[in-house]
Amino acid sequence: xxxxxxxxxxxxxxxxxxxxxxxxxxxxxxxxxxxxxxxxxxxxxxxxxxxxxxxxxxxxxxxxxxxxxxxxxxxxxxxxxxxxxxxxxxxxxxxxxxxxxxxxxxxxxxxxxxxxxxxxxxxxxxxxxxxxxxxxxxxxxxxxxxxxxxxxxxxxxxxxx
Length: 161
Fold this sequence. Notes:
Pnp Oxidase, Chain A, 8-stranded antiparallel β-sheet
């Protein structure tokens, strides 16, 4: 028995490599924004921060790029101050990786003529559609993105499997 330890195979300890946080290039940020349809709008209302989920569409015209939203008249989003943030993301829980795109900009309440112009082609089609007659457009001032990549690229079984 005393020599049994001499012949035992060493056990490799798992490498502890951290996930890498990367900057998403500008063009990819725009692509990710255009591919999505659900995000969150953030702003300060009555002195407190608020973040709410929204359906959206990205529109480009002669004035540049806009993020279009529809909401109920008079609700929190409709009363948002001029400066807002908007975020959309994608998360892979099983592989512990994901990305996010953050837009900071100014919100614009669209008038009747603008709504008519965009309604047929760019309706963001909110999931709860009733009474969503207030159209808003976010004009981006900055767009940034981050990606978290896991160093473990092996296929793993979910813990629930």
